[in-house]
Amino acid sequence: MSVVSYEQLRTELVPCVLHEPPDGYVPVPVTERLAQAIWFDQRLKRDGLQTADGRRVRVVSPGWWNLEAGPDFHRAVIAFDDARPQLGDVEVHLHSADWQQHGHTSDRLYDNVILHVALWRRGEQPVMTATGRALPQLVMADQLDAPLDQLYDSIDPENYPYDLDSHVGACESPLKSASPETIAALLEDAGLARLRTKARRLTRWIQRAGIEQALYTAVLEALGFKHNKEPMRRLAKQLPVTRLRELPAVQAQALLMGVAGFLPERTVAGRDEATRRYVKRLWDVWWKARDEFAGVTLSRDEWRLAGLRPANFPWRRLAAVAQLLAEHWELWPKIADALVSQPASKRAARLTALLTDLEDPYWSQRFSFASKPQSKAELLIGAARARDIVVNVLLPAAVAQGRLLEQPVLVEAAENIFAAHPSLESNALVRFTAHRLFGQRVPPRLLRTAVRQQGLLQVFHDFCLNDRSACQRCRFLELAGQFAAKQATL
User: Fold this and answer.
1) pLDDT tens digits, 363-376
2) Domain coordinates of the chain in residue numbers?
3) What letters, b where the CB count within 10 A reaches 16 and e where it falls short, cover 276-303?
4) Which residue has the higher pLDDT, 215 or 28?
């Protein structure tokens, strides 16, 4: 019996083309990652760059390397012929025909693509988005600034995108001269600005619907992660928290899952007895209430499940919210108590515990209606997500409510917790912005607090996200310089 090797499987599963150099030297395996690196580094004859249909191309910025679902590069800046530069996404493939073969023609994630880049031409099919828009296409093979085998020898795809100093922002070099203390103070100030920005948003929600509805909406939104925030917000609107007032958890779950579109059919033959009993209890509540929500229930198609860990599936998050409401119907008094009645050293932990100390007889050991029970219980809201909600929801809500109630002690306590809170889990935006500002020389202790991470995110949203000039007209350096000058006078 032959043994299948990793190398064999890799050849089958990872898109790769063996490229034979003209001189017959050892062929090189060309992967899509290498093609992406060539585009990112712009290893092209940039003066005469053309699309497949003959349009001149000027690449102001190749874009930001995207490590999540969707196009390979976001926020590229590209000009065609004599037109003004466009801002949009870029998708890179080995072959021009891969756009259709990978299903991008019908994928709305690719609606903002402004250029399709392929290493080689294959086929003559036009490149179309899901909206029917035809895309220009750039074939790199005949426009490389060096032979492909030489590029293969000089580019290490494993270093991309954040292990390089060649793709830092224009602010990286000047920031080298700033002291770690100045940089830390700048990020902390930006982080505090982010907290207050979130508080202003929540102030409007509180004024419009009250503190409990604002907290309910914001917690649901946070539990939707990045891709399910919008359906979570809609759910909070269609099923307000007052409708769930003092309901037992299973009844609240029935309404939440019914309006969200997650309830399975009433007949669940073939599933285990615990699931059959649980689904029957949900339907005993939902069938009486569903007419009340006719026309406002969500479709399951509105939720994005691809790429989620099973523990993070939205129905488990809704079960957590039902338990949270059952145990702490009025959440705000619990938050206020943690802020002012607990010892300062225990306040953050107490806020986190409000979210992690939740158990459900069914969902604590299940990931879906079809899954088998786990031998070990899984938190409905994990500690990392709970800390994220504390920093991004509960503390901004406390600042907002403290100001509305004219209780500065609440504002001060929330801001103090925020300033001292340990770092949250890193994410792509934090890593991207840190690399843009500092390259590979991020000071080791710089991002050990949540407030500095939040400061990086605020810099990203205020400057990087709004910059369309590939750093040429970004005013962050001006702000950083003025901040450093003021710090020197203190």
Assistant:
1) 999 999 988 899 99
2) 6-159, 182-420
3) eebbebbbebbeeebeebeeeebeeeeb
4) 215
